[in-house]
C-alpha cells in the first residue's frame, strides 16, 4: 500500500515547530523526541489522555519548561532565547488554575493584565466580558473553576495576539458556558488573524474548529495530519471472514483498531478506501459496511494499542 499513518506535515510555514523534542522528569519520560508542527493560521488540536505529554510540550514552547533535547520554535523565535518577547505575543490558558492575584476583583485583574500588553483592546475586553458574563466586582480567588476559566479566556484574547495556546480551555465549564466559550473562540478566529493550538482530551468539543490534529500518547506523536485527511483516510470496515481467518499481511501497520471475533470483524484501517477494500477481499474477507469516523472516534482509534504502529 502507498500510505502509512502520517506524523509529519508538509512544510507550508509554521507558527510552532519542534524537532526531536525530549523531556523527562526523573525516571518519568514525558516526551520522546516529537516533531510537532502547527501551520500558521491553523486551528491545531493536540489530543491525548492525561499524562500523554501535552502540557509539557506547551510549556516548553512558552519557555515555562526546558527540554532535555531537541529544539522548539514559535513565531520564528527560540523560546529559550526570546521567552519574554515571545510570551508577549501569545494568549495562554494554562491547564492548572493560578491564584496569585486572587485578592483582586475580576475588573481590577483585567486592568492589571492590560498594563503588560500595549495592544490590549479595552472595548474588546468589555465585549468579551459581557459575552462570557464575567462578575467584574467579585474577587478572582473566590470564583468557581468554570468562572475563573472564562476570565482566563478574556485575558488570553483581549490583546488580539497572533498565537493562542490553550491547555484544556473548557475544563470546569458547565454545558452552557462551554458552548458560549467555544462560540466566542470561533468568532475570534473568524475575525482575527491568529494561530490556535488547543491541547485537550475532549476532542468532540473542538471538532467544529479544528483543521489539523496531532495525537500524542506516552510522549510519542502517533499521528499528525489535517482533519480532512484523517477523516478521509481512517475508515471503519465491517466484514464477514472465513472460519479461522488470520488477517492479511498487506495491511500491516495500517490497522489501528481491531474489534470482533469469529466470522465478523470490525477493523479501523488507515489507507485509500478502494485499496483497503481490495486487500481485504483478496484475503478472503467480504466487506459489508464502510463507515467514516468523527474526529473523536478517529482520535480514540489512533490512541488504541494498535494505533502505535506506523511501519510500511
Report on the architecture of this protein:
The protein is α/β, with parallel strands linked by helices and about 300 residues long. Helices cover about 30% and strands about 30% of the residues. The protein has helices at about 55-60, 80-85, 105-115, 120-130, 145-155, 175-190, 225-235, 275-280, 295-300; strands spanning about 15-25, 30-35, 35-40, 45, 70-75, 90-95, 165, 195-200, 210-215, 220-225, 235-240, 255-260, 265-270, 285-290. The strands form three sheets. A six-stranded mixed beta sheet has the order 6-7-8-4-9-10, with helices on both faces. Strand 12 (about 255-260) and strand 13 form a beta hairpin. The longest helix is centred in the middle third of the chain and has 17 residues, at about 175-190.
Structural class computed from helices and strand pairing: alpha/beta
Q: In percent terms, what proportion of residues is strand? A: 25-35%
Major beta-sheet overview: 6 strands, mixed
The geometry reads as: elongated
Contiguous low-pLDDT stretches (5 residues minimum) are none
What is the count of β-strands?
Answer: 14
Strand order of the largest sheet: 6-7-8-4-9-10
Describe the structure in brief:
The protein is an alpha/beta fold. 29% of the residues lie in helices and 28% in strands.
Descriptors:
312 residues, alpha/beta
What's the layout of helices and strands?
Blueprint: E1 14-25, E2 28-34, E3 37-39, E4 43-47, H1 54-61, E5 69-74, H2 79-87, E6 90-93, H3 106-114, H4 122-131, H5 145-157, E7 163-167, H6 175-191, E8 195-200, E9 212-217, E10 220-226, H7 227-233, E11 234-240, E12 255-259, E13 264-270, H8 273-282, E14 286-292, H9 295-302
Parallel strand pairs: 4-8, 4-9, 6-7, 7-8
Antiparallel strand pairs: 1-2, 1-3, 1-5, 9-10, 11-13, 11-14, 12-13
Amino acid at each position: 500500500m502507498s500510505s502509512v499513518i502520517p506524523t509529519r506535515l508538509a512544510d507550508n510555514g509554521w507558527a510552532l515547530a519542534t524537532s526531536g523534542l525530549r523531556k523527562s522528569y526523573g525516571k518519568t519520560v514525558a516526551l520522546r523526541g516529537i516533531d510537532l508542527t502547527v501551520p500558521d493560521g491553523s486551528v491545531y488540536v493536540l489530543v491525548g489522555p492525561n499524562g500523554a505529554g501535552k502540557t509539557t510540550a506547551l510549556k516548553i514552547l512558552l519557555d515555562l519548561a526546558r527540554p532535555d533535547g531537541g529544539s522548539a520554535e514559535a513565531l520564528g523565535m527560540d523560546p529559550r532565547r526570546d521567552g519574554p518577547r515571545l510570551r508577549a505575543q501569545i494568549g495562554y490558558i494554562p491547564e492548572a488554575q493560578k491564584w496569585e492575584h486572587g485578592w483582586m476583583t475580576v475588573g481590577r485583574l483585567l486592568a492589571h493584565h492590560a498594563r503588560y500588553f500595549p495592544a490590549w483592546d479595552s472595548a474588546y475586553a468589555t465585549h468579551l466580558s459581557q459575552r462570557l458574563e464575567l462578575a467584574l466586582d467579585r474577587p478572582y480567588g473566590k470564583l468557581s473553576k468554570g468562572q475563573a476559566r472564562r476570565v482566563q479566556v478574556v485575558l488570553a484574547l483581549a490583546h488580539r495576539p497572533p498565537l493562542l495556546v490553550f491547555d484544556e480551555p473548557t475544563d470546569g465549564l458547565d454545558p452552557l458556558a462551554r458552548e458560549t466559550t467555544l462560540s466566542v473562540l470561533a468568532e475570534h478566529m473568524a475575525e482575527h488573524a491568529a494561530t490556535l493550538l488547543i491541547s485537550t482530551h475532549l476532542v468532540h468539543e473542538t471538532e467544529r474548529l479544528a483543521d489539523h490534529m496531532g495525537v500524542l500518547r506516552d510522549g510519542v506523536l502517533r499521528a499528525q495530519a489535517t482533519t480532512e485527511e484523517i477523516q478521509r483516510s481512517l475508515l471503519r470496515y465491517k466484514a464477514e471472514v472465513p472460519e479461522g481467518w488470520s488477517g492479511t499481511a498487506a495491511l500491516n501497520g495500517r490497522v489501528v483498531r481491531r474489534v470482533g471475533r469469529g466470522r465478523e470483524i470490525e477493523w479501523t484501517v488507515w489507507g485509500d478506501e478502494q485499496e483497503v477494500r481490495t486487500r481485504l477481499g483478496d484475503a478472503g474477507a467480504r466487506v459489508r459496511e464502510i463507515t467514516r469516523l468523527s474526529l473523536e472516534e478517529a482520535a480514540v482509534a489512533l490512541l488504541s494499542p494498535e494505533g502505535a504502529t506506523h511501519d510500511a
